[in-house]
Design brief:
- Helix 6 runs antiparallel to helix 7 and helix 8 packs antiparallel against helix 9.
- It is built from nine helices and no strands.
- It is mainly alpha-helical and 195 residues long.
- The protein has two domains: 60 residues, Arc Repressor Mutant, subunit A, CATH 1.10.10; 124 residues, Tetracycline Repressor, domain 2, CATH 1.10.357.
- It starts with 7 loop residues before the first helix and ends with a helix.
- It is elongated.
- One of its GO terms (molecular function) is DNA binding.
């Protein structure tokens, strides 16, 4: 039997969109076939089952999110200015007419109590993201943009919590400017002089 040829990244992006839009439980194999262009047999052959496709999509989401995060800092002389730009991009994404959930957030709220492996994958991806933020904060600290006595790990944890709070709160359709104000408050916390 000949193995199916397809663009794996494109298939995973398409699957991500369906899982984000419909949720894992409500996504049918027909939905995945329509989105990816792959027949169920090809999906099963490449990913074992729908759950395997979700796990692969989560991994791809992690790679793409990390690449996007790092892109905000490339060529920037001020790490904090780049971080402020990153927070603005989160707000911009949340304020678009069609709000896009985060695949990690959606999967965590739907599956974490039911699937330890999915929960572990999501926890690992969030840990990598938190660590990437911490490294940027340490870089800002070395540049003198963050006070030396501040704990970059604690700030990173606060930022992750705050960003996910903004993403969740955006679903309540707050008045224009609210999410920007909240992101500014997060950024103010990063800049404050003492813990």
């Amino acid at each position: 039997m000949r193995s199916a040829e397809f663009d794996r990244e494109e298939v995973l992006r398409s699957a991500m969109e369906v899982f984000i839009s419909k949720g894992y439980a409500k996504t049918s194999m027909q939905d995945l076939k329509s989105a990816t262009g792959l027949h169920p047999g090809s999906i099963y052959c490449a990913f074992t089952n729908k759950r395997g496709l979700l796990l692969a999509a989560l991994d791809q989401y992690g790679v793409e999110s990390q690449t996007s995060f790092e892109a905000h800092f490339e060529g920037q002389s001020s790490t904090l200015s780049a971080l402020k730009g990153y927070l603005a991009s989160v707000v911009d994404e949340c304020e678009r007419e069609e709000i896009k959930d985060c695949l990690l957030q959606k999967s965590l709220s739907e599956l974490s109590q039911q699937d330890e492996e999915v929960e572990s994958v999501i926890s690992g991806l969030m840990g990598k993201w938190r660590h990437a933020i911490k490294l940027k904060l340490e870089q800002a600290q070395k540049q003198g943009e963050i006070a030396d006595e501040r704990d970059c790990n604690e700030i990173a944890e606060f930022l992750v919590m705050g960003i996910y709070g903004i993403r969740t709160f955006s679903h309540t359709n707050p008045p224009k400017g609210t999410l920007t104000r909240l992101a500014d408050q997060l950024f103010d916390y990063v800049q404050k002089e003492s813990p």
